[in-house]
């Protein structure tokens, strides 16, 4: 649990810090008990204690091991609006954008998560809804959290948390004094319960958004804010993998695939790699060690590091290989679940000339026998012209993480040609693209689902514990 929750303590810390700064908690107020916060966020007690420790260091809380934590600072009432305005004004457009993007990025995740639930999970949810002591305000958020968490996909959970973190939790909790949510008699099916809870969540978010934008209109009319740079949504994946070596390894693989470092050539020297990527010598060495284990590069005594790209015996028990495999499988699952909606939205929103660019790119890959690059081409297409900035941001991160897939795919193919593996399916996608966005998006989703399943079957027994079973209900 501790490893799974790594980095999430900051999200809990920011949740309560925002509540204090915006006046939802006053000096002397008690925060919920650690068990209640653990139940709300579905985190380990040690993670919550770590969040409390950070808040205590900042002077916001007084923590007593035998009592509930109390708010220790006194925020002047006049500063509540100022604090909120300082945060939300530069994020106004980003919040609007993320709210639209969430339908395409997050809704498919929690729906897929529900497909993983057993009857016991639904029974526990029904019991919670029938229990008047259950917290009604947090329930819709908790429901989506439970659903996404059941995917056992750290990236998906991280994306959900980062979205709530950017939007700021207190504005998603619902208005105080709402009538407690209770399950009406006769409503017991999974579909009806899911629809009711999702409706409650959407209603709460709509009310929160209306209140937020009304507040922003007021503060901007009262005192026009300084011209600050807009603060867009950023998906901070580094909470899950703080080591620079994984990011550098991805960039080297990208350079190989793009032709910057052709197979058979040598990578730049260590000093040049350090200068080019802005990292330490140790980081370069550790990145190259990972790539060597995967057969991407091969050190040559007295010559340098050869770009190799050949499968080799790999020790899957090594933590760095486990991390790379997890990053790839989780990013592939996230892409599989979201690409039908995202690609259709993008294709319908862009110009005919941009759609033609994608079609011509598929044809060029076929002519050059590089159909295996169709993943990168499609992600580039979404990342660059998609009208929603939050989707461009997230797909840029996914694109980087998917680069880990090339060495793992080579291992799975055991020497078979990448061109032979992907030529037929890439040509099918090219034909579907000419039939329209809906047909292409469905075909692309099915293609990725099949790719994910092949990899999970091949690496069965070698998967990191958190990389859960495929959830391919599209």
Structure description:
By secondary structure, the chain is mainly alpha-helical. It is built from 20 helices and four strands. The chain has a two-stranded antiparallel ribbon. Strands 3-4 form a two-stranded antiparallel ribbon. Strand 3 and strand 4 form a beta hairpin. The two termini are about 30 Å apart. The C terminus is likely disordered.
Radius of gyration: 24 Å
Kindly estimate the percentage of residues that lie in beta strands according to DSSP: under 5%
**General form:** globular
Compute the separation of the termini in Å. Answer: 29 Å
Helix/strand order: HHHEEHHHHHHHHHHEEHHHHHHH
Strand order of the largest sheet: 1-2
Largest sheet report: 2 strands, antiparallel
Given the helix and strand composition, which structural class is it?
mainly alpha
Mean pLDDT: 84
Number of DSSP strands? 4
DSSP summary: helix tally? 20
Low-confidence stretches: 134-138, 174-178, 466-474
The helicity comes to 55-70%
């Amino acid at each position: 649990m501790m490893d799974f929750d790594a980095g999430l303590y900051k999200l809990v810390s920011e949740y309560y810090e925002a509540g204090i700064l915006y006046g939802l908690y006053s000096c002397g107020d008690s925060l919920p008990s650690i068990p209640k916060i653990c139940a709300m966020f579905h985190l380990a007690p040690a993670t919550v204690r770590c969040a409390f420790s950070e808040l205590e260091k900042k002077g916001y809380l007084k923590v007593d091991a035998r009592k509930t934590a109390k708010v220790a600072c006194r925020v002047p009432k006049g500063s509540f609006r100022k604090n909120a305005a300082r945060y939300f004004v530069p994020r106004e457009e980003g919040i609007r954008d993320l709210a639209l993007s969430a339908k395409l990025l997050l809704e498919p995740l929690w729906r897929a998560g529900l497909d993983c639930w057993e009857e016991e999970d639904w029974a526990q949810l029904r019991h919670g809804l029938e229990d008047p002591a259950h917290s009604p305000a947090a329930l819709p958020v908790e429901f989506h959290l439970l659903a996404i968490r059941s995917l056992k996909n750290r990236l998906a959970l991280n994306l959900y948390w980062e979205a709530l973190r950017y939007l700021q939790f207190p504005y998603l909790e619902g208005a105080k004094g709402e009538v407690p949510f209770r399950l009406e008699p006769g409503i017991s099916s999974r579909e009806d319960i899911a629809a009711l809870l999702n409706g409650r969540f959407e209603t709460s978010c709509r009310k929160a958004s209306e209140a937020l934008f009304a507040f922003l209109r007021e503060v901007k009319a009262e005192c026009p804010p300084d011209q600050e740079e807009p603060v867009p949504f950023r998906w901070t994946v580094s909470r899950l993998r703080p080591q620079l070596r994984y990011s550098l390894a991805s960039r080297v693989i990208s350079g190989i695939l793009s032709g910057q470092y052709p197979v058979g050539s040598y990578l730049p020297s260590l000093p040049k790699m350090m200068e080019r990527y802005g990292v330490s010598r140790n980081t370069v060495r550790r990145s190259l060690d990972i790539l060597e284990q995967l057969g991407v590069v091969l050190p040559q005594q007295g010559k340098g590091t050869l770009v190799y790209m050949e499968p080799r015996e790999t020790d899957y028990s090594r933590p760095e290989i486990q991390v790379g495999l997890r990053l790839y499988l989780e990013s592939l699952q996230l892409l599989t679940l979201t690409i039908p909606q995202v690609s259709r939205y993008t294709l319908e929103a862009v110009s005919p000339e941009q759609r033609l660019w994608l079609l011509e790119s598929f044809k060029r890959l076929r002519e050059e026998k590089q159909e295996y690059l169709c993943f990168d081409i499609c992600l580039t297409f979404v990342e660059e012209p998609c009208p929603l900035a939050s989707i461009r941001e997230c797909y840029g991160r996914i694109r980087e993480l998917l680069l880990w897939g090339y060495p793992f795919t080579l291992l799975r193919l055991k020497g078979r040609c990448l061109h032979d593996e992907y030529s037929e399916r890439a040509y099918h996608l090219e034909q579907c693209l000419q039939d329209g966005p809906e047909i292409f998006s469905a075909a692309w989703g099915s293609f990725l689902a099949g790719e994910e399943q092949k990899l999970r079957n091949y690496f069965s027994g070698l998967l990191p514990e958190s990389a859960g079973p495929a959830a391919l209900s599209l």
